[in-house]
Amino acid sequence: MSLTARELLHKLAEDAGLTYPTVAKRINRMMKKGSGLIESVQEIAVEHKLKPNKYNINPVKIVAETEKILREDYTQTLMISAVLGQMIESRGKERFPPPAFFAYTEMLFRISDAPRDVKSETSIEIAERTTRNIELMTTLVSVLCEWSEQGVVGVADDCPDILRDIARAIFRKTKLLQGGLWTCISCGNIVESRETRALMCYECDSKLSGSRSIEDRYESLGENDRRSYGRSTE
Description:
Radius of gyration: 18 Å
Mean pLDDT: 85
Low-confidence stretches: 221-234
Order of helices and strands: HHHHHHHEEHEEEEHH
Shape: globular
Strand content: 5-15%
Strand order of the largest sheet: 1-2
Distance between the termini: 32 Å
Number of helices: 10
Protein backbone atom coordinates (compact mmCIF):
# COMPACT_ATOMS: atom_id res chain seq x y z
CA MET A 1 0.00 0.00 0.00
CA SER A 2 1.26 3.48 -0.88
CA LEU A 3 2.11 5.87 1.93
CA THR A 4 2.25 9.15 0.04
CA ALA A 5 -0.01 10.83 -2.49
CA ARG A 6 2.83 10.96 -5.00
CA GLU A 7 3.38 7.20 -4.79
CA LEU A 8 -0.35 6.54 -5.10
CA LEU A 9 -0.80 8.82 -8.10
CA HIS A 10 2.22 7.32 -9.85
CA LYS A 11 0.73 3.85 -9.36
CA LEU A 12 -2.65 4.96 -10.71
CA ALA A 13 -1.07 6.73 -13.69
CA GLU A 14 0.97 3.67 -14.58
CA ASP A 15 -1.96 1.24 -14.25
CA ALA A 16 -4.34 3.50 -16.17
CA GLY A 17 -1.87 4.32 -18.94
CA LEU A 18 -1.91 8.02 -18.11
CA THR A 19 0.84 10.52 -17.39
CA TYR A 20 1.47 11.57 -13.80
CA PRO A 21 0.80 15.30 -14.50
CA THR A 22 -2.56 14.41 -16.07
CA VAL A 23 -3.62 12.42 -13.03
CA ALA A 24 -2.31 15.04 -10.59
CA LYS A 25 -4.19 17.89 -12.27
CA ARG A 26 -7.41 15.86 -12.36
CA ILE A 27 -7.09 14.97 -8.67
CA ASN A 28 -6.47 18.62 -7.73
CA ARG A 29 -9.59 19.72 -9.60
CA MET A 30 -11.69 17.04 -7.94
CA MET A 31 -10.45 17.90 -4.46
CA LYS A 32 -11.19 21.58 -4.99
CA LYS A 33 -14.78 20.54 -5.64
CA GLY A 34 -14.93 18.71 -2.33
CA SER A 35 -13.87 15.17 -3.19
CA GLY A 36 -11.37 13.47 -0.91
CA LEU A 37 -7.98 12.30 -2.15
CA ILE A 38 -8.79 8.58 -1.96
CA GLU A 39 -12.31 9.12 -3.29
CA SER A 40 -10.90 10.98 -6.29
CA VAL A 41 -8.22 8.38 -6.99
CA GLN A 42 -10.69 5.51 -6.77
CA GLU A 43 -13.16 7.28 -9.06
CA ILE A 44 -10.50 7.57 -11.75
CA ALA A 45 -9.57 3.93 -11.17
CA VAL A 46 -13.18 2.85 -11.80
CA GLU A 47 -13.29 4.95 -14.97
CA HIS A 48 -10.33 2.93 -16.28
CA LYS A 49 -11.82 -0.40 -15.18
CA LEU A 50 -9.32 -0.86 -12.36
CA LYS A 51 -10.11 -2.23 -8.91
CA PRO A 52 -10.60 0.85 -6.70
CA ASN A 53 -9.63 -0.93 -3.47
CA LYS A 54 -6.10 -1.31 -4.81
CA TYR A 55 -5.66 2.45 -4.44
CA ASN A 56 -5.67 3.40 -0.81
CA ILE A 57 -3.58 5.07 1.87
CA ASN A 58 -3.49 4.16 5.54
CA PRO A 59 -2.98 7.39 7.58
CA VAL A 60 -2.15 5.38 10.70
CA LYS A 61 0.88 3.96 8.88
CA ILE A 62 1.88 7.48 7.79
CA VAL A 63 1.90 8.54 11.44
CA ALA A 64 3.91 5.44 12.38
CA GLU A 65 6.59 6.09 9.75
CA THR A 66 6.80 9.77 10.68
CA GLU A 67 7.25 8.92 14.34
CA LYS A 68 9.97 6.43 13.42
CA ILE A 69 11.88 9.07 11.47
CA LEU A 70 11.54 11.68 14.20
CA ARG A 71 12.66 9.26 16.90
CA GLU A 72 15.82 8.25 15.04
CA ASP A 73 17.96 11.13 16.24
CA TYR A 74 17.28 14.22 18.31
CA THR A 75 19.56 16.60 16.43
CA GLN A 76 18.24 15.37 13.09
CA THR A 77 14.69 16.15 14.21
CA LEU A 78 15.74 19.67 15.23
CA MET A 79 17.31 20.19 11.81
CA ILE A 80 14.19 18.95 10.01
CA SER A 81 12.06 21.25 12.18
CA ALA A 82 14.30 24.20 11.34
CA VAL A 83 14.01 23.56 7.60
CA LEU A 84 10.22 23.19 7.69
CA GLY A 85 9.96 26.28 9.88
CA GLN A 86 11.83 28.26 7.24
CA MET A 87 9.71 26.77 4.45
CA ILE A 88 6.40 27.79 6.00
CA GLU A 89 7.63 31.38 6.09
CA SER A 90 8.65 31.22 2.45
CA ARG A 91 6.53 32.41 -0.45
CA GLY A 92 5.48 30.78 -3.69
CA LYS A 93 6.17 27.16 -4.60
CA GLU A 94 8.81 26.79 -1.88
CA ARG A 95 6.30 27.37 0.90
CA PHE A 96 5.40 24.42 3.11
CA PRO A 97 1.56 24.37 3.27
CA PRO A 98 0.41 25.54 6.72
CA PRO A 99 -1.96 22.57 7.28
CA ALA A 100 0.95 20.19 6.65
CA PHE A 101 3.13 22.17 9.07
CA PHE A 102 0.42 21.95 11.72
CA ALA A 103 0.31 18.19 11.15
CA TYR A 104 4.07 18.09 11.63
CA THR A 105 3.90 19.90 14.97
CA GLU A 106 1.29 17.39 16.10
CA MET A 107 3.71 14.60 15.20
CA LEU A 108 6.41 16.26 17.26
CA PHE A 109 4.14 16.24 20.27
CA ARG A 110 3.68 12.50 19.89
CA ILE A 111 7.43 11.89 20.16
CA SER A 112 8.08 14.30 23.03
CA ASP A 113 9.44 11.43 25.11
CA ALA A 114 11.96 10.34 22.46
CA PRO A 115 15.50 9.63 23.71
CA ARG A 116 18.02 12.37 22.98
CA ASP A 117 20.50 10.22 21.13
CA VAL A 118 22.82 12.23 18.93
CA LYS A 119 24.14 10.50 15.83
CA SER A 120 26.01 11.81 12.82
CA GLU A 121 23.67 11.85 9.85
CA THR A 122 25.08 13.51 6.75
CA SER A 123 23.45 16.57 5.23
CA ILE A 124 22.23 14.35 2.39
CA GLU A 125 20.53 11.96 4.84
CA ILE A 126 18.86 14.85 6.65
CA ALA A 127 17.69 16.32 3.33
CA GLU A 128 16.21 12.95 2.34
CA ARG A 129 14.37 12.60 5.64
CA THR A 130 13.12 16.19 5.38
CA THR A 131 11.76 15.51 1.90
CA ARG A 132 10.12 12.32 3.15
CA ASN A 133 8.49 14.22 6.02
CA ILE A 134 7.15 16.83 3.61
CA GLU A 135 5.53 14.14 1.46
CA LEU A 136 4.14 12.27 4.46
CA MET A 137 2.63 15.39 6.05
CA THR A 138 1.08 16.77 2.87
CA THR A 139 -0.46 13.35 2.27
CA LEU A 140 -1.65 13.06 5.86
CA VAL A 141 -3.60 16.32 5.76
CA SER A 142 -5.04 15.29 2.39
CA VAL A 143 -6.64 12.17 3.88
CA LEU A 144 -7.48 13.39 7.42
CA CYS A 145 -9.15 16.64 6.42
CA GLU A 146 -12.06 17.65 4.22
CA TRP A 147 -11.03 20.00 1.42
CA SER A 148 -12.61 22.51 -0.93
CA GLU A 149 -11.43 25.34 -3.13
CA GLN A 150 -10.90 27.35 0.08
CA GLY A 151 -8.58 24.70 1.51
CA VAL A 152 -9.24 22.71 4.70
CA VAL A 153 -12.91 22.96 5.67
CA GLY A 154 -13.25 20.24 8.28
CA VAL A 155 -12.40 16.71 9.34
CA ALA A 156 -12.86 13.99 6.72
CA ASP A 157 -15.74 11.60 7.33
CA ASP A 158 -13.43 8.59 7.01
CA CYS A 159 -10.73 9.98 9.28
CA PRO A 160 -9.77 7.20 11.74
CA ASP A 161 -11.04 7.86 15.27
CA ILE A 162 -7.55 7.65 16.77
CA LEU A 163 -6.38 10.49 14.48
CA ARG A 164 -9.38 12.80 14.81
CA ASP A 165 -7.68 14.92 17.47
CA ILE A 166 -4.86 15.61 15.01
CA ALA A 167 -7.31 16.46 12.23
CA ARG A 168 -9.26 18.81 14.50
CA ALA A 169 -6.07 20.58 15.59
CA ILE A 170 -5.03 21.03 11.95
CA PHE A 171 -8.46 22.41 11.06
CA ARG A 172 -8.58 24.83 14.03
CA LYS A 173 -5.11 26.24 13.44
CA THR A 174 -5.76 26.56 9.70
CA LYS A 175 -8.98 28.49 10.34
CA LEU A 176 -7.17 30.75 12.80
CA LEU A 177 -4.49 31.47 10.21
CA GLN A 178 -7.12 32.25 7.60
CA GLY A 179 -8.48 34.79 10.07
CA GLY A 180 -5.07 36.38 10.54
CA LEU A 181 -4.19 34.58 13.77
CA TRP A 182 -1.25 32.32 14.60
CA THR A 183 -0.63 29.83 17.40
CA CYS A 184 2.84 30.49 18.81
CA ILE A 185 4.88 27.31 18.39
CA SER A 186 6.54 27.88 21.74
CA CYS A 187 3.95 28.99 24.32
CA GLY A 188 0.76 28.14 22.40
CA ASN A 189 -0.74 31.62 22.75
CA ILE A 190 -2.85 32.88 19.85
CA VAL A 191 -1.56 36.14 18.40
CA GLU A 192 -1.95 38.25 15.27
CA SER A 193 0.00 36.51 12.52
CA ARG A 194 1.67 39.79 11.59
CA GLU A 195 2.97 40.05 15.15
CA THR A 196 5.15 36.94 15.00
CA ARG A 197 8.84 36.34 14.49
CA ALA A 198 10.20 32.95 13.47
CA LEU A 199 6.72 31.46 14.07
CA MET A 200 6.76 32.69 17.69
CA CYS A 201 5.04 35.52 19.49
CA TYR A 202 7.26 38.52 20.26
CA GLU A 203 7.62 37.52 23.90
CA CYS A 204 8.91 34.02 23.14
CA ASP A 205 11.11 35.30 20.34
CA SER A 206 12.64 37.94 22.59
CA LYS A 207 13.67 35.25 25.08
CA LEU A 208 15.73 33.66 22.32
CA SER A 209 16.88 36.86 20.62
CA GLY A 210 20.52 36.70 19.72
CA SER A 211 20.59 32.92 19.91
CA ARG A 212 22.25 31.33 16.92
CA SER A 213 21.75 27.76 18.11
CA ILE A 214 19.18 25.61 16.36
CA GLU A 215 18.83 23.66 19.59
CA ASP A 216 17.96 26.86 21.49
CA ARG A 217 15.33 27.78 18.90
CA TYR A 218 13.56 24.45 18.62
CA GLU A 219 14.25 22.79 21.94
CA SER A 220 11.91 25.22 23.71
CA LEU A 221 8.82 24.54 21.63
CA GLY A 222 5.85 23.83 23.85
CA GLU A 223 7.89 23.75 27.05
CA ASN A 224 5.30 25.77 28.96
CA ASP A 225 2.86 22.86 28.78
CA ARG A 226 4.95 19.76 28.27
CA ARG A 227 8.22 18.70 26.75
CA SER A 228 7.37 18.74 23.07
CA TYR A 229 8.08 20.59 19.85
CA GLY A 230 5.22 22.99 19.54
CA ARG A 231 1.86 21.41 20.14
CA SER A 232 -0.22 24.02 21.85
CA THR A 233 -2.85 23.11 24.40
CA GLU A 234 -6.00 22.52 22.38
